[in-house]
Amino acid sequence: MSFFRALLSDRATDEGRAPAGYVVVDLETQRGPDEVGGWVAERMGLAVAVTWDQQNAFREWFEEDVQALVEELSGFERVVGFNILDFDYRVLAAYHPAVSKILRGTTVDILAHVHRALGFRIKLDELARATLGRGKTGTGDQSLQWWRQGKRDLVVKYCRADVELTRDLYMHGVTHGVIYFPSYGSKRAVKVNW
To answer: Domain 3-119+135-175 adopts which CATH fold?
Structure first.
């Protein structure tokens, strides 16, 4: 039994119910599109997923923890991510085919929301820099390179930083009703109703 399964089991008996509130999640993969014949997320393999919630702060989840991760996410009122519907859930579906069905109704996908509002996709780094004044600490390509080199601690650190950005972007939207994106040397607001 993994550490996280044991934690869930202990928490379920201690509290008698699943956690409420919101959780933020992001993941990194073991393989890139060049290795799996394109953007076939289901073939990319989970390197690590990182979650953050108020009760537990940051936690790391690995391949053997996917079932427990999905169970954990399903206990929250809201699951927050960036491109989570079209990418993260597809990666997890290779291990847990019902993940999207289980979580779609409670998911806030920041990219999907912004795409609907603006009519085009925009990067997390651009939204974070315009809204929070800080950006990502690396790229997905760097994360893949670190994974191949066995530098898993760097992959976890990078994923954790993305979770922190996503969380802070989400909370900015909750608090102010807007997030910002860069536009011709300035920034413009996107209304959000999370």
So the answer is: Nucleotidyltransferase; domain 5 (3.30.420)
